[in-house]
Amino acid sequence: TLVPIQPHGRKAPLFCIHPAGGIVFPYYSLAAQLRQDQPVYGLQDPSLYAEKSSFLSIEAMASHYLQALKTVQPEGPYHLLGWSFGGLVAFEMAQQLSRQGQVVANLILLDTQAPDAARNPAPAPSLKELLRRGASWVRAILHIRDVVPAVGPIANYIRSGLFLLATTAKRNEKPGTQKPGFKDLLDWTKLDTWRMNLLKEAEVADFVSQEASLLLVEMPDVRRILEMVREHERLGRRYTAEPFRGRITLFRATGSRRDAFEIGEDTLGWESLAEGGVDLHPIHANHVALLVKPYVKILAEDLKICMNTRTYLPPR
């Protein structure tokens, strides 16, 4: 469950909860952009390695993750971060920690829609709004530049998974190795140098711990990950959120072409659930691109500030 992405440093750890699908490898790029003394741990769904889901609710998942988290940090203040579905789990973890008398220094959500907003969508759009939407699709088709930017981040996301599966190759580097030719690329067992170069290019090799490398090498197949995506979507639809006494930091992807009437408000519905208010940080990227370059650098710089300036709210 607990993946030590970058376990070294004296600062309080940042705990990153997986998005739908259960895997945490997207957070490796973020860890590489943070300070080297900033420990980063991922919380990954153990159901990936089982035949059926381990959890019947987000509440049960959050409770299990807190047990794993406390093996590293028994007492707060805690820094929690969740992307997409992971934001719902992070929110519930913060609720449970608060009820336990623990301090949540930062609850950081990456483009996560509040559950109540998802269950209570805005009224059907007017004819004028439907026509406007149709026109935007026509413009996207006619102007290829509106479509292409979404392709790169998705390709980088997939590519990230491939080179992270090969992190052990970095440690087996030998002087004098040469980049293999096309024939070598056809043989997966001869791709060490190629994969090593990908790791260097991604600037994450030095942040990958030995434990995390072993987990990534044994990562479940794509079919199981897709099954987990569907399961997590079901858990998200059933989750009922209670107001949180603290403050929420929300990084919203503003390049996803989602309109205010679809998400309720600029804060994606969290304003009504955060008694301490919402710190909104818009990033002009689509949902997938938040954790890839160049946007992950912007995210990391803002996170550094957030984690150094948070005013703690006492627990209930």
Question: Can I get a quick summary?
Answer:
With 316 residues, this protein is of the alpha/beta class.
Q: Can you give a write-up of this model?
A:
The protein has 316 residues and is α/β, with parallel strands linked by helices. 42% of the residues lie in helices and 12% in strands. The protein contains 13 helices and seven strands. Helix 1 (27-33) links the parallel strand 2 and strand 3. The protein starts with a strand and ends in a 7-residue tail after the last helix.
The total count of helices amounts to 13
Radius of gyration: 20 Å
Helix content: 40-55%
User: Helix/strand/pairing class, anyone?
Assistant: alpha/beta
Give the termini distance in whole angstroms.
Answer: 28 Å
Taking all residues together, what is the mean pLDDT? Answer: 75
The rough form would be described as globular
What amount of the residues lies in strands? 5-15%
Q: Strand order, biggest sheet?
A: 1-3-2-4-5-6-7
How does the major sheet shape up? 7 strands, mixed
Low-confidence stretches: 143-151, 164-171, 179-203, 257-264, 311-316
Order of helices and strands: EEHEHEHEHHHHHHHHEHEH
Based on DSSP secondary structure assignment, what is the total number of beta strands? 7
Oligomer: single chain
